[in-house]
Every structure is written in C-alpha cells, then in structure tokens.
Amino acid sequence: MQIDLWTDVACPWCYIGVSRFERALAQTGVDVSLRIHPYQLDPEAPIPGVPAIDRYRRKFGDEAEAIVERVTTTAREDGLAFDLERAITANTFDAHRAIAYAQRLGKGPELERSLYRAYFAEGLDVSDRSVLADRAADAGLDRDSIAAYLDGDDGVDEVRGELVQAIETGITGVPSFLFNGEFMVPGAVDEQSFVRILRQMQQMQPMPEDRP
Q: What is the pTM of this model?
C-alpha cells in the first residue's frame, strides 16, 4: 500500500497524528510504502529560532496558553513528551531537506521522529544544521555526508518544488495522509480510525494474479 504523508516537524498535530498512524500500522501489520513530503506551516519562521511560546503569544494572543495546554495534554495522553515552554520555533526548510536525504537512504521516518523529539521535548533548534546532522547520525546516517549536503545547495530546488506541489495537490494543513493516491485523510485522526482505514484500503487492493 502506498501512503503519501505531508508533515512539518514544527507541527504538534503532525507529531501526534504520525504517532497514532505508526501505532495503527503496528496493530494491523499492513505492509506500506511511505513517502514523506514537506509542508511549512510557517515559512517565515526565523533562522536561528526563537522561543515558541513567544511566537504563539504573538500569533494567538490571550488564547495562546489554552492552546498550548490543550495540545500538551493531548500529546501526554498519547504518550508523547511535550515541553513547549522550551521549544524553539525555527524555519524548517533545511529539516525538510534533511528528511528528503534520509528518505533516499531508507531512514526518513527515523529522522522525522527524531526531529519531532528535538523540537517538542528537547528544546533544540531544528534550523541549526549541526542539530540536523547530529539527529541524522542518531538515525543511522553518516554525519559528515549529510553535513556536507546541508552546507551546499543540494535538495533546495527539490524541496521548493515539493512545497509548491503540495499547494497544487490541495494540501491546506498537516498532517495529511494520502492512501494509494486516491483517499485523503487530513488531520490527526484517532488511532482506531487509522486502523479501520488501513484495513479497508488493504481489502480494496487488487489480489495478485494467480500464476501457473
């Protein structure tokens, strides 16, 4: 089963939604091929980053504290550690380049999960290329190779093109999951909904032709 996933590592609902999806995969045992695509919730976010809580307050005003509390509580119920008081809001363009690099080497999901933890639990700046290289190394990639890649222009045009393609595809928010190129599921739906969707899509897949 082919699944296309649009996410941003600075998106709390992406971390929650992807974690629910991964648990549903483990529960169903469905074999999937996952392609991760970039999306930037805040393409104007700075480099280096700034305290996320300050940016939330400027964006949401008096509602900021309630929003942070709600998403933190939801994350905790899903077994995820969130510390948005420590989080650093930063531009995620290079993070998407790093994930694209990792994906070509079969390590995209591992690096994506590591960057979620870096942002939401560890207070690290995901626009910092040294942070990205360190997390890539933790995910099993060669640190020097990805550091050289990030310091150059490789992958820049590709990520820009994918960001444009996301808009053309109709992606207006993340996470967004596209099953077999035909069934779009937007948002961090609950784990059991993912289980039902995976099983239904598996049943709809054509059976392999019998061979003599």
A: 0.93
